């Protein structure tokens, strides 16, 4: 029997989502450059998903090609488009990108289950233990707490990434990226003893280093979601 050449797994990948509203070649390039210059280490080689669902008017194939070219020129890595129209589908494929549906939501058929079974499932979910990491998380590492909170007893270095379906607690400096509620929990929070993060994200909403520097920088802080805006407050 031949040796196994590979194994395929599912994983959590952080990607920047760009909601495209309008397109003017010069204005788009300059605005994107300004945004990337505000946090160059975060955006450098970051995977990018273009969301076309909120575009005003009709985006032409040549315009999409220019958008992708500008993103690549500035160091982003466009990998997929959401809400692709039939007129753009062949262009998306020619650009080597995937086409994603406009929404990840889907209808779910509700079936009756015994009450005892439902209660048992809820209790098991609530009792799932937190993931505890006692060593520093170094640059290039990714730690993910699936279905639970993440507790980090040491520093999270610049270039590291920590993710959790629940809350994130960092008992040391937070200098990398922290993403809580990655499966959509808007009540998730991020706590740290020293806020120096490149990015904090809750349920898909995020703020970058330039904004964080104006709020509790290098202080004990926690981040939480208020509406569609992330707030950072001192502890």
Automatic annotation (TrEMBL):
Which residue range or ranges hold the Septum formation inhibitor MinC C-terminal domain?
A: 132-232
Q: Does the keyword Metal-binding apply?
A: no
Q: Name one GO biological process term.
A: division septum assembly
Database matches in InterPro entries = CAP/MinC_C, MinC, MinC_C_sf, MinC_N, Septum_form_inhib_MinC_C
Gene3D superfamilies membership: 2.160.20.70, 3.30.70.260
Q: Which Pfam families match?
A: MinC_C (PF03775), MinC_N (PF05209)
Assigned keywords, A-Z: Cell cycle, Cell division, Septation
Q: Taking every annotated instance into account, which residue ranges of this chain make up the domain Septum formation inhibitor MinC N-terminal?
A: 6-78
Q: Which domain of life is it from?
A: Bacteria
Q: What is the role of this chain?
A: Cell division inhibitor that blocks the formation of polar Z ring septums. Rapidly oscillates between the poles of the cell to destabilize FtsZ filaments that have formed before they mature into polar Z rings. Prevents FtsZ polymerization.
Its family remark reads: Belongs to the MinC family.
Question: What do we know about how this protein assembles, alone or with others?
Answer: Interacts with MinD and FtsZ.
Name of the protein described by the UniProt record: Probable septum site-determining protein MinC
Q: What is the lineage of its organism?
A: Bacteria, Pseudomonadati, Pseudomonadota, Gammaproteobacteria, Oceanospirillales
């Amino acid at each position: 029997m031949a040796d196994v050449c590979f194994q395929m797994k599912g994983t959590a990948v952080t990607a920047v989502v760009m909601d495209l509203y309008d397109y003017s070649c010069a204005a788009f390039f300059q605005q994107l450059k300004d945004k990337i210059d505000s946090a160059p280490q975060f955006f450098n080689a970051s995977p990018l998903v273009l969301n076309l669902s909120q575009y005003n008017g009709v985006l032409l194939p040549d315009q999409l090609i220019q958008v992708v070219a500008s993103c690549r020129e500035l160091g982003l890595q466009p990998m997929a488009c959401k809400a692709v129209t039939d007129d753009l589908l062949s262009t998306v494929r020619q650009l080597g990108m995937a086409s994603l549906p406009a929404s990840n939501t889907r209808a779910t058929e509700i079936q009756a289950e015994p009450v005892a079974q439902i209660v048992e499932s809820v209790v098991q979910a609530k009792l799932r233990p937190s993931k505890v990491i006692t060593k520093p998380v170094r640059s290039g590492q990714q730690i993910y707490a699936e279905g639970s909170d993440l507790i980090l007893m040491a520093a999270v270095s610049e270039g590291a990434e920590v993710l959790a379906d629940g809350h994130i607690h960092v008992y040391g400096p937070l200098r990398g990226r922290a993403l809580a509620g990655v499966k959509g929990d808007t009540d998730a929070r991020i706590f740290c003893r020293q806020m120096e993060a490149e990015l904090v994200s809750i349920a898909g909403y995020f703020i970058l280093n330039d904004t964080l520097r104006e709020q509790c920088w290098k202080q004990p802080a926690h981040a939480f979601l208020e509406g569609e805006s992330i707030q950072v407050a001192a502890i």
